[in-house]
Automatic annotation (TrEMBL):
PROSITE patterns linked to this entry: UVRD_HELICASE_ATP_BIND (PS51198), UVRD_HELICASE_CTER (PS51217)
Low complexity composition bias: residue spans: 710-728
Pfam families according to UniProt: PcrA_UvrD_tudor (PF21196), UvrD-helicase (PF00580), UvrD_C (PF13361)
Annotated gene: pcrA
Keyword Isomerase on entry: yes
Name used for this protein in its record: ATP-dependent DNA helicase
Length: 792
């Protein structure tokens, strides 16, 4: 199929056309969100093939995700037909894999090499740490891997990394790097970062190989250029920079190949992957890096209404050191932005669900037109629960579903073991998680002993002293593990609340500590997910009718015993099951499902209707960024990405109280809300309205309300009161009484339990109850009015 020129250039404005038909010098297309960068890139590929006679095999187009690659390929094939099939449209990683499979011999490994994912890499690094006999407290595999990954992104092999090591710790990291690479090689495996680094090293070490690939790829096109890291930049440079003056090729005698034609498109304001090594300078310095480069600016936005654009421009305008852009739209002002302040995160989610319902009832949108964005994966949990309850079909894009996440599964495996130590799968899952030196050998000895004695594996552990063949060190570790589980079991027997048991499990097992001390950003997410799980447990303990997937028809039975661990586990298991919403193949006008994802995942996408949720300082912008200007600016770029995904309608929302670690947090409104022009937002419900509700409900705590709204408010009221308890209100209320004013983290002395640390405080004044960890005495919940505790 050969489309006409008009067809290829249809629906493009003048600068877009220029970029599509451009020939020769490296071309940079910089433009704000929704200005058609991706469209230009796609069209240019079709143009190259159709009008300039480029062989499809000579085209290398790079996208940020595999999904984006598939879409781009499809668009091009629609335009120029099946012959486009052999062009390379892929992510950097996939392109490198393909190159390395062909060139592996040069690098000394077999072409059937395995690619290690993050989990495999970690397992391997753990082995390395064992080889090196490293103190796992000081040298965590994850931290080392992170360091190694950074080195690889900077194209440093272990020798260079060792040279650059600034202290003994980094020297050890470099040594671990060396052995890690050795083991990868033995396994004929490459990790993710290797794919890029090895390809660049290959091109640099073998000029003739590089020339071959240059000869092949005559056109290189890169989308989302603002998020490339150094290795990716170097790769492009190898293929596209004018290296005629460089000596390497001349010395090797290889024939010089002129550089490929390069086009990169991007938007510095959308650079959001610095934490993974992306370097915003790559796009900012493009004109220096490629001296004869030309630049095309696109200024018309075709995605959003003017209201949405003005809002986004206003927010991003608060970043310093950026080139101001004049992004405009002729789509008209459109609807105002709708704002909502929820009582808590559940109320916020309920608002979103109701609003989507309303829009579809009024024929303004179908579920598939709607996207819900949040800052961290953990926030999906409440949306999932509320959406399941109200029957709103949804899918979570990217990221594993909450209850399938590793850390959540681990935590639940602990609880299952505590509830039922015969549950072999759960027990074995956590036996050595976090690493406590109970190795495979010891495990095998216990297994053999238990089989012989016809007892459970757990009983085998309890009698480990009698099992032959276990090293003393392992034996000590097994004993303390058994003790840990037994202690936690005694909390269950004592009728302790599920959330307290869970918190204790995570702290005493060392699980939480390991994550907190790690510098892998993923582990930060894991900690957040665990905080979410504790919040679920707390909610369940307080009001089992509200927790995950509680059937609203269930009447509370006043005579029933308080819900325990087993009830909780059952409840959670049911959520995980009802979670599975089948992917029904849909026609054009099927309503489809609501899409949920983190802001990072939303890059490059667009939806008619967007809900930007959790706009609270400490959530978004993320806590970590609050005191750090570069990080805060990156958060602001993320906000810009989020806002500019919307085509027609934009919603912004936040919650007054949000659970984290079971202790409700009272987050102030996100500063990004203040950066929006006031007159563009129509607040459905403000903080002021919210607070008056709260006061009313706090006064007369009637428990009659049956509707969701009634319950939401009532629940909010109880949460609000606990939130204020840990703030000044409780201190004031308690002043003058003999009730000590306590905050989480305070140290106290109790007449009979001794020294303790306050975990949380709920309720105010004479109703204040504190959970206090008294170490070996366990965690006690004490009514402070009567408890003989003294603040230290
Ligand atoms: P982002 O920065 O978010 O990646 P982008 O610059 O890549 O955005 P595109 O996704 O290519 O923008 O385009 C945004 C929307 O505008 C798409 O729906 C696209 O089809 C449409 N569009 C782009 N250019 C035009 C045009 N000249 N006329 C009409 N619609 C256009
Ligand atoms: Mg794009």
């Amino acid at each position: 199929r050969r489309p006409s020129r008009d067809e290829l250039l249809a629906g493009l404005n003048e600068p877009q056309r220029q970029a599509v038909v451009h020939e020769g010098a490296p071309l940079l297309v910089v433009a704000g969100a929704g200005s058609g960068k991706t469209r230009v890139l796609t069209r240019r590929i079709a143009w190259l093939i159709s009008e300039r006679g480029a062989h499809p095999g000579s085209i290398l187009a790079i996208t940020f995700t595999n999904k984006a690659a598939a879409e781009m390929r499809e668009r091009v094939e629609e335009l120029v037909g099946g012959r486009a099939r052999i062009m390379w449209v892929s992510t950097f990683h996939s392109a490198c894999v393909r190159i390395l499979r062909k060139e592996s011999a040069n690098l000394g490994f077999k072409s059937n090499f395995t690619i290690y994912d993050a989990a495999d890499s970690k397992r391997l690094m753990t082995l390395v740490c064992r080889d090196l006999d490293l103190d796992v407290k000081r040298f965590q595999p994850r931290a080392i891997l992170n360091w190694v990954s950074n080195a690889k992104n900077e194209l440093q092999d272990h020798e260079e990394a060792a040279k650059d090591a600034r202290n003994t710790q980094e020297e050890t990291y470099a040594e671990a790097y060396r052995i890690y690479q050795e083991r990868l090689r033995q396994a004929n495996a490459l990790d993710f970062d290797d794919l890029l680094m090895m390809t660049v090293h290959l091109f640099r070490a073998f000029p003739e190989v590089r020339e071959n690939w240059r000869r092949r790829f005559r056109h290189v096109l890169v989308d989302e250029y603002q998020d490339t890291n150094h290795a990716q930049y170097a790769l492009i440079h190898e293929l596209c920079a004018d290296s005629m003056e460089e000596l390497t090729t001349a010395e090797s005698g290889a024939e010089r190949v002129p550089p490929a034609e390069l086009m990169v498109v991007g938007d510095a304001d959308q650079s959001i992957y610095a934490f993974r090594g992306a370097n915003i300078r790559n796009i900012m310095d493009f004109e220096q890096d490629f001296p004869n480069a030309e630049t095309v600016l696109l200024e018309q936005n075709y995605r959003s209404t003017q209201t949405i654009l003005t809002a986004a421009n206003s927010v991003i305008g608060h970043n310093e050191g950026r080139k101001p852009k004049k992004l405009w739209s002729d789509a008209g002002d459109g609807a105002k932005i709708t704002g909502y302040v929820g009582d808590d995160e559940r109320d916020e989610a309920r608002f979103v669900a109701e609003e989507i319902d309303r829009l579809s009832d009024e024929g303004k949108a179908r579920a598939k037109d709607v996207a819900v964005f949040y800052r961290t994966n953990a926030q999906s949990r409440v949306f999932e629960e509320v959406f399941i309850r109200v029957g709103m079909p949804y899918k979570v894009v990217g990221g594993v579903r909450f209850y399938e996440r590793r850390e959540v599964k681990d935590a639940l495996a602990y609880l299952r073991t505590i509830a039922n130590p015969a549950d072999l799968v759960s027990l074995r899952r956590i036996l050595n998680v976090p690493k406590r030196g109970i190795g495979e050998r010891a495990e095998a000895c216990i297994d053999a002993y238990a089989t012989r004695e016809r007892i459970t594996f757990w009983e085998g552990l309890q009698q480990a002293d009698q099992a032959p063949g276990i090293a003393t060190r392992s034996l000590t570790m097994i004993r303390s593990f058994v003790e840990l589980i037994e202690q936690l079991q005694s909390m269950v027997v004592a009728g302790e609340r599920v959330d307290v048991i869970l918190e204790q499990t995570l702290t005493r097992s060392g699980y939480l500590k390991e994550l907190e001390e790690s510098d892998d950003p993923q582990d930060e997410t894991r900690v957040e997910n665990l905080a979410e799980l504790v919040a679920v447990a707390r909610e369940f303990a307080e009001d089992p009718q509200v927790g995950p997937s509680a059937d609203p028809a269930d009447e509370p039975d006043p005579d029933a015993p308080p819900p325990g661990l087993t009830d909780f586990l059952e409840r959670v298991a049911l959520v995980a099951d009802s979670d599975q919403i089948p992917d029904v193949p849909e026609g054009e006008d099927a309503p489809g499902v609501v899409t949920m994802m983190t802001l990072h995942t939303a890059k490059g996408l667009e939806f008619p209707i967007v809900f930007l949720t959790g706009l609270e300082d400490g959530v978004f912008p993320h806590m970590r960024s609050l005191g750090d200007k570069p990080e805060l600016e990156e958060e602001r770029r993320l906000a810009y990405v989020g806002l500019t995904r919307a085509r027609e309608r934009l919603y912004i929302s936040r919650a007054i109280v949000r659970s984290a670690w079971g202790a409700p947090a009272h987050n102030p409104a996100s500063r990004f809300i203040d950066e929006l022009p006031v007159d563009l937002v129509d607040w459905k419900r403000t903080a002021a309205e919210q607070t008056s509700w709260t006061r009313q409900d706090l006064g007369g705590s009637s428990y009659g309300g049956g509707s969701l709204t009634g319950r939401g408010r009532q629940q909010m009221a109880s949460r609000f009161s606990s939130a204020s308890a840990s703030a000044d209100a409780s201190k004031k209320a308690m002043a003058g009484r003999d009730v000590p004013s306590l905050d989480p983290g305070d140290r106290v002395q109790h007449d009979s339990f001794g020294l303790g640390t306050v975990i949380s405080v709920e309720g105010a004044a004479e109703k204040a109850v504190a959970s206090i960890d008294f170490g070996s005495e366990g965690v006690k919940r004490l009514l402070l009015r009567y408890a003989p505790v003294e603040k230290l």
